[in-house]
Design brief:
The chain is of the alpha/beta class. 44% of the residues lie in helices and 18% in strands.
Length: 310
């Protein structure tokens, strides 16, 4: 039978690795530096190996300690997540929604805020992550919003909408409508999700579709997150080619303008997946119907935007 070192010693060790030293770990845990040192000694005796090394007056993890810490940190993170899930399960009036970070912040979260006004008795947990919940991790996740095909359970998944991209920038950069060729004269902001997902249409594709011919993209800044790219455009750093669903609120508020209304469809759709166990709860069924309707609304808007270029 294998034996684990004392749990308290492992907890202290994880804190030392996260904080980078004894004193900082003691403050994090609310104990004395001597108590931290004592637990570290207990752990090293239990594993039969030194896990730290002196750096001047500071104590740091050595190579063995760093490797061991990676596993310990992952284990404690999973334990914290499991405990948080357990705490959420105590509240029957709750929803756990997992979504891609930019889709969550720029499209879903504002909609959920409006929905929750009509359901003030519900607590909603919004988790922005690129990681698709596996079956083993999905306990507690009521809904997942993801992108692309081939990753879904057909029995519990529906297509929400297929977006399109449009150029958008700060009104301080371009206040009025311009021809596609004029867009090239400004700094261009690119969104690139590869290799995890098929990226949105590129600037090269957009210029070709606009009839501008072959264009060499210069002075381009590339972001892996749509929300970061959109924020850079809001701050006047360039023109972004971004999803219409994610820039429309900023356009309506005047933070962004669309200098040239030419849209290209996204290569794939956004999907909604739900837990088979969760859907038996009334608030989940209500939310599912509501969100599917919002997806249909967004699809109608997208189709309208794509029609404008014809």
């Amino acid at each position: 039978m294998s034996h684990l070192p004392p749990l308290r010693a492992l907890e202290v060790f994880e804190a030392v690795g996260l904080c980078g030293g004894i004193t900082q770990a003691a403050k994090r845990l609310g104990i004395s530096a001597g108590a931290v040192s004592q637990q570290m000694k207990i752990l090293e005796e239990a594993v039969g190996l030194s896990l730290t090394a002196k750096e001047g007056q500071r104590l740091r993890l050595n190579a063995s300690g760093q490797r061991f810490h990676e596993g310990c940190n992952q284990a404690f993170e999973r334990l914290r997540a499991a405990y948080a899930e357990l705490e959420r399960s105590k509240n029957a009036n709750s929803l756990y929604i997992s979504a891609l970070p930019s889709l969550l912040s720029k499209w879903l979260a504002p909609l959920v805020a409006d929905w929750q006004l009509a359901h003030p008795q519900l607590s909603v947990y919004l988790d922005g992550t690129h990681t698709e919940p596996s079956e083993a991790q999905a306990n507690g996740v009521d809904f997942r919003l993801s992108y692309g095909e081939g990753i879904h359970d057909d029995q519990h998944t529906i297509e929400l909408f297929r977006d399109c991209v449009v150029p958008a920038c700060s009104p301080a950069m371009l206040a009025g409508t311009v021809a596609p060729q004029e867009v090239q004269a400004h700094p261009l902001i690119t969104i690139d999700w590869r290799p995890k997902f098929d990226s949105p249409p590129s600037w090269e594709q957009w210029f070709a579709d606009a009839g501008a011919g072959e264009v060499t993209i210069r002075n381009s800044r590339i972001y892996s997150l749509s929300s970061m790219a959109i924020q850079a455009a809001i701050e006047g750093q360039g023109i972004v080619l971004a999803q219409y669903s994610m820039v429309s609120r900023d356009v309506d508020s005047g933070r962004l303008v669309i200098p040239c209304m030419r849209a290209l469809p996204m290569p794939a759709s956004y999907y909604l997946t739900w837990s088979q166990n969760s859907i038996h709860r009334s608030q989940c069924r209500t939310f599912q119907r509501w969100l599917i309707e919002r997806g249909r609304d967004q699809q109608e808007v997208t189709d309208s935007v794509l029609e404008r270029k014809r």
